[in-house]
Amino acid sequence: MLLQDKTIIVTGAGGGVGKGIAQVCCREGARVLIADIDADVAAQTALELGPLAMSVQCDVCLDEDRQRLVETAMTLGGQIDGLVNNAGVNFAKPFLETEPKDWQRVIATDLEAVFFLTQYVCRQMLKQSPARGSVVNMGSVHTLAALPGSGPYDAAKCGVVGMSKSIAVELASSGIRVNVVSPGLCNTQIWEDIKAAAPSQQACTDHWKNQIPLGRTIEPQEVGELTAFLLSDRATSITGANLLIDGGMTSQLISREPYEPKAIDG
Ligand SMILES: NC(=O)c1ccc[n+]([C@@H]2O[C@H](COP(=O)([O-])OP(=O)(O)OC[C@H]3O[C@@H](n4cnc5c(N)ncnc54)[C@H](O)[C@@H]3O)[C@@H](O)[C@H]2O)c1
User: Fold this and answer.
1) In a domain, 192, yes or no
2) What is the pLDDT of residues 202-230, one digit of tens each?
């Protein structure tokens, strides 16, 4: 198994992408700390995942919760081998209507919390013998391209890439690796919300199929497979990377024509 006997923290693991990551990590033999602001969903997920999973209520925006999270993780196996900074909030509001409180909420959760939880965890990893560990930060296709009305989210996710590269190069010689996983549209609550906001589910699904060359959303467990690999000792030469898992979305210049185009020769 890829992660046998490792202890891994996954934030925002009560549902969505984080739950998929936690599932794969447990399957691969890791002890997984399911950290979520919602105590009930965290407990329910830990129950579903079995004896290798444990839940803890944690608001990643609160410094005391971040410290308590690290202390709780240490009670599982006496060391921390991996951290997945997955907890995040989404955002869509026109630029001209975005208020300071919107900016602060998104930056606090999607960027600042990632920096300071990583700092606590890396301090602990450096005390271990041998000092080593793997951090995976959740990016997004928004690290490569933008959507209207996503200013704070785009800033946070691009910031996650910048800070991850910085920490990766600073700690590389200490045995700690830091990488970013950047999913495209995933089959989570956000996809349900997008469909619910569309005039018709069919039109919505057709539209998104055209945006994603693979023709479908990404499953949370698929993000889990990539994340588990990066957390494992099979990825020992990978650090500072931003790996896309987007079904080809960001490789496609424009969406496919809704008709059969003629060949252009010359
Ligand atoms: N779903 C997608 O299509 C998609 C695409 C690209 C990137 N992402 C990223 O993946 C991550 C997870 O997204 P998701 O779609 O699964 O979200 P989600 O809303 O379905 O789940 C997020 C989880 O995080 C928890 N959470 C929220 N704020 C928290 C906080 N302050 N402290 C601790 N837990 C908190 C929630 O309770 C929830 O269980 C985010 O970082 C998001 O930006 C998602």
Assistant:
1) no
2) 999 999 989 999 999 999 999 999 999 99
Mean pLDDT for the stretch of residues 70-81? 97
CB-based pocket (< 6 A), ligand 1? 11-12, 14-18, 36-38, 41, 58-61, 86-89, 109, 138, 140, 183, 185-186, 188-190
In the numeric block, the tokens 């809704």 are attached to 258
Taking the centre of ligand 1 as the mean of its atom positions, its distance from the CA of residue 89, in whole angstroms, is 6
Q: What residue numbers bound the domain in which 236 lies? A: 7-183+218-245
Query: For residue 60, which atom of ligand 1 is closest to its CA?
Result: 32
The protein residue whose alpha carbon is closest to atom 17 in ligand 1 is: 16
Which amino acid, 72? T
Please name the amino acid found at residue 109: T
Q: Which among 45, 67, 69, 86 is the best mutation to test ligand 1's pocket, defined by most ligand atoms within 8 Å of the CB?
A: 86
Please report, for the chain, how many H helices and E strands are present, in that order: 9, 7
Tens of pLDDT along 18-67? Answer: 999 999 999 999 999 999 999 999 999 999 999 999 999 999 999 999 99
Is residue 231 in some structural domain? Answer: yes
**Mutational test site, ligand 1, from 9, 23, 33, 37, max ligand atoms within 8 Å of CB:** 37
Element at 55 (helix H, strand E) = strand 53-57
Asked if 84 and 18 count as a contact pair (C-beta separation under 8 A), the reply is yes
Q: What is the count of structural domains for the chain? A: 1
Chain centroid to Cα 168, Å, comes to 17
Question: Is the pTM above the cut of 0.90?
Answer: yes
- Residue 190 located in a structural domain: no
Does 254 fall in a domain? Answer: no
> Average pLDDT in the 8-12 region?
98
